Amino acid sequence: MPENTLVRAQLILPLHEQSRAHFHFPDYNGRWWVMDTSYYGQKPKVVMDKEGYRSMIENAVHTMQTQKLEKVVLSRILDWQGERTIETADILEELTHDYPSACVFQFELANGEEWIGATPEKLLVKRGKNWQTIALAGTQVHANKGTWGAKEIHEEDVVKEYIINVLESNGAQNIHVSERYERTAGALVHLAHDIHFESDENVSFWAQLLHPTPAVCGLPKDLAMEYIRVSEPHARGYYTGLIGLEHPNGDADVFVLLRCMQRVTGGFLLYAGGGITAGSMSESEYNETESKANVIRHALDAIQSR
Question: Burial code of 170-196, b = ≥16 C-beta within 10 A, e = fewer?
Answer without folding.
Answer: eebeeeebeebeebebbbbbbbbbbbe
